[in-house]
Amino acid sequence: MTLQQLKYADAVATYGSISEAARRCFVTQPTLTEAVRLLEEELRIAVFTRSPKGVSMTREGEEFLASARQILDDAARISEKYTGKAVRRPQFAVSCQHFAFAAEAFMEVVKANGAESYDFTLRETVTSEIIDDVARHRSEIGILYLSRRNERAVGKILRKEELKFDELFAARPHVFVGRGHPLARRRSIRPAELDAYPYLTYEQGVENALYFAEEVMPAIDRRKNIRVRDRATMTNLLLGLNGFTVASGAHAKAYNPAIVSVPLELDDKIRVGIVSRAGIPFSPSAAAFVAAVRRIIAGK
């Protein structure tokens, strides 16, 4: 087993294609294919399965790649320390619902990274894509919430994809409004008091099932509904239309000082957590991200 073989296997897993991995590694496709074949032969496992649609990792391959990437990261750090040359850019991707604290934690990880180059991705996306990104290795971890309304359906999907959910925190539902909203100074808000205002929710694309909604209060219960796709539009409409949305009480004030949150009198609880592949250890960047999220939440 060589570092070069590990690099090739890592590239195939990252790009999901032997031809694309070969192009990125500046080798011919037969060279890369043979290197991976010899690696699998030595390990006596199938790291990848091949099909007309491309390649995907086996369960054993996932466990192997998690260890292989740690070796590649360690080798890169040693090389950079003693030669001054970085031979591998740190890579990390996270997919999440539209949580401001996740963006804040991601920024902390980027700022703390000591490498001269890196390849990080933050995907704020719909719930179904978060699960698919983690299951298909496009993201190392995901962040979403479970509640009494969606935990059975979403939990079933997670188990089917062999993913686990580790709770970060649990919170009461809160109403998010602009500081100038007529209800912004209330100690709590009843759902009926929101009838006169537009309810802003995140559109979930083709998978717009009720249990994929990012908001714990169903839009079907409201008279005025507006769906958006990104957090900037959400903020503009909250402020410009005296609208509201519903989320957890974890609010990054420094990231969005124009928005306040007020407890909602709704008999439910929001459990926000990390979605990851069971049995696969976190990379250093993923572990740093989770630690940053916990620090940010603890400070709210």
What does this structure look like?
The structure is a single chain. The chain is α/β, with parallel strands linked by helices and 300 residues long. It folds into 2 domains: 1-88, Winged helix-like DNA-binding domain superfamily/Winged helix DNA-binding domain (Arc Repressor Mutant, subunit A, Orthogonal Bundle), CATH 1.10.10.10; 90-300, D-Maltodextrin-Binding Protein, domain 2. It is 39% helix and 21% strand. It is built from 9 helices and 12 strands. Strands 4-3-5-12-6 form a 5-stranded mixed sheet, with helices on both faces. Helix 1 packs across helix 2 (18-25), helix 1 (3-15) packs across helix 3 (29-43) and helix 5 packs across helix 9. The longest helix is centred in the first third of the chain and has 25 residues, at 59-83. The N and C termini lie far apart (48 Å). The mean pLDDT is 87.
Structural classification = alpha/beta
Can you count the beta strands?
12
Mean pLDDT: 87
Shape call: elongated
Approximate helicity band: 25-40%
Number of helices: 9
Describe the main β-sheet briefly.
5 strands, mixed
* H/E element order: HHHEEHEHEHEHEEEEHEEEH
CATH topology term of the largest domain: D-Maltodextrin-Binding Protein, domain 2
Strand content: 15-25%
CATH class of the largest domain: Alpha Beta
Distance between the termini: 48 Å
